């Protein structure tokens, strides 16, 4: 096992050197773009001069904002509220303030709900939006099922996961943001970051009337979601598109295991069911790759009836077919992207704009809310954010301190998705069988993995040990009643396949940051003197 860590350290060192070169090249290039991208002047009476469409200058009052936030989704709204409660003057710019209608971002793990409580936003995910408590998962495979309950024995009765309509949750948080007098929530489309000598000074945006505006602040936080058009300035994005989700809503049906998410280990990939209100159940059908059957010409309905329906639990089949017949079928591309920040004075990335993982495990909002709590705590000692370079250096600690939570949830999501997908490879089939049977054993074999998935136990080393315990368990089963050359070879391929699944994900997260964060100098960064 030691040689793996040594090899990992060498790989990370080499990658770090390449990454350093990329950063230097990027920053040098950005400095050259400043003159072309930014043209502004401030006259003696405190106005920012901005050219209008006809070339003349229109006065705009110089900003007295502390933080500009781009986006008011889950991350942006929660961040705006918590910074506003801290006394910061915040300007939030959101492209569309109407209620979102999405098929993901509907399940909040217990660890994420605890963060929501810390932020003072727990009442945004309660009965007022018909949110449902979630106490764990039920796994189905070939007609067998096992229930995995969250380890909530040490918490009050209110602590559990929550599932809901994503749009209702976001609107509730936006309502809370709007109650703060020091927070301005505005509809507008941010087009670019305003940079000056390598430092982000604010954003340029078009307001609801289509007028070109600028907003300046010492710190700009970009939370504009998975389709962010600003992230390339603040990170080196490596976006993967592993699959698509096909979304349906089942009405007036009871799940086999009440208040639990249901995961069917289907062919070719998992099928999910979970409640989003007292009368509705969300179904998400995973389709590997970037292309799905056409909804418009009926191919999707045919696919759901012929391929998916035979794998749906009997208790849900009638409601599933009714939802297909109703025709309100939605699709979306699933994305995965490791966090690869380029520290930039005056700006920082958060939420899906910064880091994404496969949504199979419903961990995205937990990571985002955990990041917000951490960022709030880091900023709390600072009364003045105007020293952009010192603030940027200080906030490099954010990228290391977030790793226990983010890397655990990210790695688990990526690894579980690959294990849960069907495969013609006998070794992968054995790994899938071993994972289901391992989780069915109960005790630490189910308690451990579900505590990782829930966000209640953010320890990457525990994830690593459980993952390879599944592989060893699978090899052990192959050796019974006695090993044969064929079984030994299959067991060897199983452990190699397991390594091929998890090590690339760990590499993307960063071996040192994930397992040895205390060895990173930025881990010990202190707030700048003020």
Topology:
Layout: H1 2-37, E1 41-42, E2 47-51, E3 57-61, E4 67-70, H2 74-85, E5 90-94, E6 107-108, H3 110-118, E7 132-134, E8 136-141, E9 144-149, E10 161-163, H4 166-178, E11 183-196, E12 199-207, E13 212-216, E14 219-222, E15 240-251, E16 261-264, E17 271-275, E18 280-288, H5 299-308, H6 314-326, E19 330-336, E20 347-349, H7 364-379, H8 388-401, H9 403-420, H10 426-440, H11 444-453, H12 460-478, H13 485-509, H14 511-515
Parallel strand pairs: 4-5, 4-14, 5-11, 8-16, 14-20
Antiparallel strand pairs: 1-2, 2-3, 6-10, 7-10, 8-9, 11-12, 12-13, 15-18, 15-19, 16-17, 17-18
Write up this protein.
41% of the residues lie in helices and 21% in strands. With 530 residues, it is α+β, with helices and mostly antiparallel strands. The protein has three domains: 59-129 and 164-238 and 337-386, FAD/NAD(P)-binding domain (3-Layer(bba) Sandwich); 240-336, 2-Layer Sandwich (Alpha-Beta Plaits); 404-510. The strands form four sheets. The protein has a seven-stranded mixed sheet. β11 and β12 (199-207) form a beta hairpin. α2 runs parallel beside α7, α7 (364-379) packs antiparallel against α9 (403-420) and α10 (426-440) crosses α13 (485-509). Mean pLDDT is 89; it is low at 1-62.
Q: Tell me, what's the shape?
A: globular
Radius of gyration: 24 Å
Q: Under the CATH scheme, which class of the largest domain?
A: Alpha Beta
Q: How is the biggest beta sheet arranged?
A: 7 strands, mixed
Low-confidence stretches: 1-62
Number of helices: 14
Descriptive labels:
single chain, 530 residues, alpha+beta, FAD/NAD(P)-binding domain, Alpha-Beta Plaits, 3 domains, seven-stranded mixed sheet, 21% strand, Squalene monooxygenase, FAD/NAD-bd_sf, flavin adenine dinucleotide binding, oxidoreductase, squalene monooxygenase activity
């Amino acid at each position: 096992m030691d040689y793996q860590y040594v090899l990992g350290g060498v790989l990370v060192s080499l990658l770090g050197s390449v990454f350093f070169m990329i950063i230097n090249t990027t920053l040098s290039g950005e400095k050259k773009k400043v003159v072309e991208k930014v043209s502004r002047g401030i006259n003696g009476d405190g106005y920012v001069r901005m050219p209008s469409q006809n070339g003349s200058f229109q006065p705009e009052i110089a900003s007295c904002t502390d933080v500009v936030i781009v986006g008011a989704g889950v991350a942006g709204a929660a961040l705006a509220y918590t910074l506003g409660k801290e006394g910061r003057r915040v300007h939030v710019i959101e492209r569309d303030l109407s209620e979102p209608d999405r098929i993901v971002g509907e399940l909040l793990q217990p660890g994420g709900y605890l963060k929501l409580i810390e932020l003072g936003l727990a009442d945004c995910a309660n009965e007022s939006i018909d949110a449902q408590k979630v106490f764990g998962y039920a796994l189905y495979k070939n007609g067998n099922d096992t229930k995995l309950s969250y380890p909530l024995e040490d918490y009050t009765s209110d602590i559990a996961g929550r599932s809901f309509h994503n749009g209702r949750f976001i609107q509730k948080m936006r309502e809370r943001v709007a109650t703060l007098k020091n927070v301005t929530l505005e509809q507008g489309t941010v087009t670019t970051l305003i940079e000056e000598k390598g430092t982000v000074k604010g954003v340029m945006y078009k307001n609801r009337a289509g007028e070109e505006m600028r907003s300046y602040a010492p710190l700009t936080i970009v939370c504009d979601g998975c389709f962010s058009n600003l992230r390339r300035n603040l990170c080196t994005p490596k976006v993967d598109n592993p699959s698509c989700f096909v979304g349906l809503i089942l009405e007036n049906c009871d799940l086999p295991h009440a208040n639990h998410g249901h995961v069917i280990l289907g062919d070719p990939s998992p099928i999910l069911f979970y409640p989003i209100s007292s009368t509705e159940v969300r179904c998400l059908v995973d389709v590997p790759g970037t292309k799905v059957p056409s909804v418009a010409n009926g191919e999707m309905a045919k696919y759901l009836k012929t391929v998916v329906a035979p794998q749906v639990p009997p208790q849900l089949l009638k409601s599933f077919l009714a939802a297909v017949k109703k025709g309100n079928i939605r699709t979306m591309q699933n994305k995965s992207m490791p966090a690869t920040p380029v520290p930039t004075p005056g700006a920082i990335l958060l939420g899906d704009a910064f880091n994404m993982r496969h949504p199979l495990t419903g961990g995205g909002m937990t990571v985002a809310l955990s990041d917000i709590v951490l960022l709030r705590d880091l900023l709390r000692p600072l009364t003045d954010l105007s020293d952009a370079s010192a603030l940027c250096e200080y906030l490099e600690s954010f990228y290391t301190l977030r790793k226990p939570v983010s890397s655990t949830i990210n790695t688990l999501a990526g690894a579980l998705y690959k294990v849960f997908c069907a495969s013609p490879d006998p070794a992968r089939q054995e790994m899938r069988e071993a994972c289901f049977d391992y989780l069915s054993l109960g005790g630490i074999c189910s308690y451990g993995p579900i505590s990782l998935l829930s966000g209640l136990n953010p320890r990457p080393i525990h994830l690593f040990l459980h993952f390879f315990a599944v592989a060893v368990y699978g090899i052990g089963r192959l050796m019974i009643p006695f090993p044969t050359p064929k079984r030994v070879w299959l067991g060897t391929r199983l452990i190699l396949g397991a390594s091929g699944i998890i090590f690339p994900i760990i590499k993307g997260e960063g071996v040192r940051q994930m397992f040895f964060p205390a060895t990173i100098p930025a881990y010990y960064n202190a707030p700048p003197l003020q």
